[in-house]
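Ops channel
N.P.: pipeline sanity check, posting one input/output pair.
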C-alpha cells in the first residue's frame, strides 16, 4: 500500500495534505501558531487563526476561526494562486470543480462572508455575519481535544450565458448561491468531566508521588527510631546486670539467719549455765 500526501485536485503546493483530519489535534496548542486541518469535502487543507478564549462546561478553550485567507486565491497571498484551478475569480470563493467530478461548484462562507464585495453585489439579500456564518473550532489547548465545532459553508453555482439557448442567452456571469449549511458539535457535560479528570491527572500524579515519598521518608525515620530505642534499652539492661552481683543477697540472708539463730540460742545457753551452777 502506497501513501501519498499530495492530491491531484490542485497544483502544488496547494494539493498538499497538511494538518490533522479534523477529529484530533496535537497537544500544547498556542495562540500564535493557529491550526490546520484537511477537509475531504473541499479536497484541501484549511488554516484557522486564534480569535479568543471560550469557557465550555468549565473548560477553557482556544477558539480558532476562518479568516480572509481561508478562501484566498492569490489576491491577498500569492502562494494561494494555485487554488484558482484555471481562471482566478475574486478572492473568497473556492473552485471545487475538480474535486466534485467536474460539476461547476464553488464553495464560500455563507452569505459570502469574508469574500470580495464583488459577489455580494451580484445577489440581493446577502447579510454576512461572523457570529452566524464563520467556521470555527474551539480546542482544549493542553490536550488538543475539540470542545466546540461549527462548520459552515455555502454552495454556489457559476451561471454563464449560453448563446444557443434563448432562455440563458442574456444571463449574466454570476456566482449564484444555492444553499448554505451548518454542522455543529459541542462536547457534552459528561465528556467534559472526563476531560477535566485528564487535565487534573498530572497534578494528582505529582501530589501522590510527593505523598508516597513523604510517607516513605516518615516510615524510614520511624524504623530508625525503633532500632535506636531497642539498642539503647538493650545496653541499659546489660549495665544493670553487671552492677548488681548475684551473691550479695545470699550473704545478707545468711547473716540474717546467723544473727537470728545466735539471738535465739544465747538466752537458752545462759539459762542452762545458770541452772547447772545452782
Amino acid at each position: 500500500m502506497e501513501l501519498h500526501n499530495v492530491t491531484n485536485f490542485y497544483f502544488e503546493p496547494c494539493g498538499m495534505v497538511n494538518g490533522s483530519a479534523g477529529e484530533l489535534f496535537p497537544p500544547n496548542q498556542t495562540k500564535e501558531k493557529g491550526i490546520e486541518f484537511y477537509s475531504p469535502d473541499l479536497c484541501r487543507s484549511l488554516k484557522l487563526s486564534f480569535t479568543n478564549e471560550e469557557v465550555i462546561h468549565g473548560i477553557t478553550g482556544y477558539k480558532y476561526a476562518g479568516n480572509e485567507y481561508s478562501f484566498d486565491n492569490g489576491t491577498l497571498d500569492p502562494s494561494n494562486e494555485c487554488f484558482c484551478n484555471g481562471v482566478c475569480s475574486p478572492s473568497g470563493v473556492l473552485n471545487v470543480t475538480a474535486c466534485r467530478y467536474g460539476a461547476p461548484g464553488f464553495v464560500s462562507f455563507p452569505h459570502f462572508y469574508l469574500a470580495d464585495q464583488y459577489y455580494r453585489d451580484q445577489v440581493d439579500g446577502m447579510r454576512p455575519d461572523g457570529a452566524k456564518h464563520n467556521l470555527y473550532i474551539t480546542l482544549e489547548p493542553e490536550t488538543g481535544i475539540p470542545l466546540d465545532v461549527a462548520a459552515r459553508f455555502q454552495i454556489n453555482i457559476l451561471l454563464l450565458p449560453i448563446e444557443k439557448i434563448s432562455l440563458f442567452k442574456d444571463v449574466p456571469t454570476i456566482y449564484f448561491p444555492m444553499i448554505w449549511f451548518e454542522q455543529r458539535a459541542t462536547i457534552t457535560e459528561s465528556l467534559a468531566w472526563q476531560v477535566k479528570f485528564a487535565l487534573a491527572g498530572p497534578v494528582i500524579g505529582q501530589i501522590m508521588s510527593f505523598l508516597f515519598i513523604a510517607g516513605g521518608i516518615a516510615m524510614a525515620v520511624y524504623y530508625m527510631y525503633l532500632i535506636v530505642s531497642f539498642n539503647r534499652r538493650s545496653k541499659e539492661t546489660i549495665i544493670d546486670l553487671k552492677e548488681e552481683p548475684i551473691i550479695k543477697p545470699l550473704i545478707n540472708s545468711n547473716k540474717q539467719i546467723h544473727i537470728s539463730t545466735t539471738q535465739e540460742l544465747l538466752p537458752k545457753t545462759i539459762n542452762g549455765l545458770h541452772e547447772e551452777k545452782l
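N.P.: looks fine end to end. The longest strand covers residues 146-159.
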